[in-house]
């Protein structure tokens, strides 16, 4: 994305969000044929891990968006439920904690008090990036501990 021919994890998540947003649009498309193709058992089995993950994101969004108001956006109440039930463990990893109100204000780009699928993807990207960084932090800590143990071991000989 920044023309260096290498994708950082952040750039990868942006591409992924765009693709997932496209998949979400297709799942709502007027093109019934595409919708049918999307739901046949054969295509479902051939999906990659990443495509299955994208399907799950779309499905989870719909589980919450269809509770009240517009069936394809989240109200503040729906967003709160989704966050509390679906992002509780990963949100702990985000460095600067935000309240539901702050998250809602932040995500609601067009200020219509509704969160669209692409607006929710921004939150998912942020949390995923934080989780990815956390994973590397843990790996770094484990490597340091192993190196320290090896040093201690060498001193005993």
Describe this structure in words.
The structure is a single chain. The chain has helices spanning 9-28, 32-39, 41-46, 49-65, 76-86, 88-91, 100-107, 117-155. By secondary structure, the protein is an all-alpha fold. The model is unreliable at 30-34 (pLDDT under 50).
Protein traits:
single chain, 157 residues, mainly alpha, 0% strand, elongated
Largest sheet: none
Structural class: mainly alpha
Shape: elongated
Residue-averaged pLDDT, rounded? 81
Strand content: under 5%
Number of strands: 0
Kindly provide the radius of gyration, computed on alpha-carbon positions and rounded to a whole number of angstroms: 20 Å
**Which parts are unreliable, with pLDDT below 50 for 5 consecutive residues or more?**
30-34
Q: Cα distance, first to last residue?
A: 52 Å
Task: Give the helix level as a range of percent.
Answer: over 70%
H-E order: HHHHHHHH
Count of DSSP H/I helices:
8
Describe, in short, the structure shown.
This protein has 8 helices and no strands. It is mainly alpha-helical and 157 residues long.
Task: Note the topology.
Layout: H1 9-28, H2 32-39, H3 41-46, H4 49-65, H5 76-86, H6 88-91, H7 100-107, H8 117-155
